[in-house]
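sorry to bug you again but im stuck and you know this stuff better than me. theres a chain ive been looking at and ive put its sequence and its fold in token form underneath. id like you to explain what the token line says about the fold, in plain words if possible. anything you notice is useful, everything is just below.
___
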Amino acid sequence: MNRLMVAAYAEDPITLGGVIGSLDGRPDLCVTKYSRHNRPDVLVVCVNAVTGDTLAMLRGIAGSEPTKVVVVTNHLRDVDVLPLVECGVVGMVPVAAATPERLGRSVLAAADGRGEMPPTLLGQLLGQVASLQRDVLRPKGLIPSGMADREVDVLRLLAEGLDSGQIGGKLGISERGVKNVLEVLLRRLGLRNRPHAVAAALRAGLF
């Protein structure tokens, strides 16, 4: 049996020992204390409350070694949910509900690419995403991927093998206009080249 590599982080050694002890008896998991040298399949982070330091740590981990994260916490504000998701958090478990069975289920769900959180938190997340799209993205002509509708159209045609001139003909803009759309998109999203942009759109499920 291939065992999942799970790393645990907590603010104090007693809590850390409790998290590791809750998971360590499972034959399908290999559990250890988190360090920057670890490359776990899932990281379990147990904190009393989500603070700026918590988010900074998770952003650093996500930037250097993308990892699926399960957060166990006593206090979670509405405003924390979306930033946590942006940091790679796919599971959120209240401390009061963090039984060994529940925690193990959340870890396996995270490893399998399935998020798990209380229904109230899911509702908060969906509400925040809708607000972000309504108040921030839509006024700028953007969609949640950070791309504008015209940019998605250009990338879709690019993926079909059309060159800039052909794309311009399809969309009713000049060849130079197509190149400008691509240059702005690459610069804004930090993409290397056209194939990288097409790959990003495909991963986002835009076409």
The chain has a mean pLDDT of 82.
